[in-house]
Design a protein that fits this description.
single chain, 172 residues, alpha/beta, Rossmann fold, six-stranded parallel β-sheet, three-stranded antiparallel β-sheet, 28% helix
């Protein structure tokens, strides 16, 4: 099974999380910076995709990450990813941006879903402190939200739990 990890970053934190996650998931391709790929059609060659995205443009209705993901959303939505499983992790600040916590995850989630991908990696919102997030679907986030600014002490445990969840949901 071919699974790739893709990320875009402004400060390096999303890349760091992608590397840490890679270390927890044996057999997964090394993380790739989205800024280094020219065509998202390489997603077609994978069985599973794990995406890392920060939220910079808080409160925005579109292009919420402020990274290379923003310019590739339409391309992703135009792919045919039926049978592919996609999981998303997002970085945000639940203290300073409590009304927009990890909003960019939802935008990425909706474009992969539009492409026909099966979305996995949902995480319950119960253990998070925030007011609002566009990334909440029902009682869960549409991926793994992480806060390296205000709750970095919780990241290792959250990554460990999510990696175990993904092993089951992605089937490896």
């Amino acid at each position: 099974m071919a699974v790739g990890i893709y990320f875009a970053t402004t400060t390096g934190k999303t890349e760091d999380i992608a590397e840490r996650l890679h270390g927890l998931l044996s057999g997964v391709n090394s993380p790739k910076d989205l800024a280094d790929i020219s065509d998202v059609s390489e997603f077609n060659d994978l069985d599973g995709i794990i995406c890392g995205i920060p939220t910079w443009n808080t409160g925005a209705d579109s292009e919420r990450s402020g990274t290379a993901w923003d310019s590739m959303l339409e391309d992703i939505g135009g792919l045919s990813l039926g049978g592919k499983k996609v999981a998303i992790f997002g970085l945000g600040d639940s203290s300073t941006y409590t009304e927009n916590f990890c909003d960019a995850m939802e935008e990425l989630h909706s474009y992969f879903k539009k492409a026909g991908a099966t979305m996995v990696g949902y995480v319950g919102k119960g253990s998070y402190t925030f007011e609002e997030s566009k990334s909440v679907v029902g009682d869960s986030f549409c991926g793994l939200p992480l806060d390296e600014d205000s709750e970095s002490d919780l990241t290792d445990e959250r990554l460990e739990n999510w990696s175990k969840q993904l092993k089951g949901e992605l089937g490896f």
